[in-house]
TrEMBL record:
Organism: Streptomyces agglomeratus
Residue span(s) of domain F5/8 type C: 239-384
Protein name, as recorded: F5/8 type C domain-containing protein
Coiled coil: none
InterPro entries xrefs: ConA-like_dom_sf (IPR013320), FA58C (IPR000421), Galactose-bd-like_sf (IPR008979), Polysacc_lyase (IPR025975)
Pfam families: F5_F8_type_C (PF00754), Polysacc_lyase (PF14099)
Amino acid sequence: MLAAGVALAPVQTAMADPVGVQRTLDWEQSADRTLPATAPAGLNKQWATSYGATNVTSPTRDGSHAARFELRKSDPVVSSSKRAEISQRDEQPAGADRWYGFSINLANTWTHDTSAEIVSQWHHCDVGCPGTSPPLALLTDEGRWKIDFRGEPIDLGAYTTGAWVDWVFHVTWRTDSTGLLQVWKNGERVVHQTGATHDGGPRSPYFKFGIYKWDWNTGAPSSTTQRVMYYDALRLGDERAVHRDITPQRACTRAPVVAAASATTYEAANPPSHAVDNNLTTRWSGRGFGAALILDTGKPRQLCGATVAWHRGDLRWNDYTIHASQDGVSYTKVWEGRSSGTTTAPETVHFTSGALDARYLKISFWANPENDWASITEARPLGL
């Protein structure tokens, strides 16, 4: 039996960057707020106007400062095209394993255009690399978020203006079958592909962010003359990083849809579906030590906690554990403790391991002071 004093502590935010984070650029350090005169230290400037890249105090995603990018059709050509970007230097080692986390807010003026634009890209090395098009790019096109991965488009849904969207990219830069591309949008994994991630060369692709609109240089049709967006919470990591080190920091409050609920045991009158029907007067009940309710969110997501409401929860405590899994077969324990015994309302717990990529949550009952029945009226996973 678990100790009665287990605290339901919230996830703690690290005071310093984890070891795998190579660079944080959230614009909170005064030394980083060098725009528009120059790019922050170690990065390259690719804009030609006083408004191309600036620091602002609103809107922000992480802290009190962000970067604002503006590109106009009339702007001078920079590096052979129309762009307002900040670029890594071309010094990424061959075969690099890299993480990139950032948040983008498209201004309300970002209306649908007949012409696409890149808002983050990974560029081939400048000398000795084949091809000129980036092997990987995040775009807006036809009113939608899209990824161009080695010439193949991946549609990631309609964009919304005036709202922050969090992105995490994990790329193993390889030219053979050992390459990997993973992408998370607002904490939900939306891309997982293996195989070659670029076409070769002495170095891995390097990262650029901002606005790049090539059609304004080629004379292709375009129905707008200005683009404005905001960029914040940038973190770059190496092979030692994991998702939670890189993702823009977010409250553990998002409640993903539960696609299905099952259980290791249940009585016919109180099936597992009753624990996800938004009704605190119904319940799942299963008898015995280790009886478990299993929640399936439908796809891998960044999960960080759960809410659980117990039948007779104001009259008795319940000892229980929560395990998480990507495949429904192999589970990892992410929390253990005791309900308060003072309420029938949902109680929130945050995983002691921090957020992790998972599809399934298994809530296992171990004891209460009255009997050997697990009875949960409502349960939900929480995500970033």
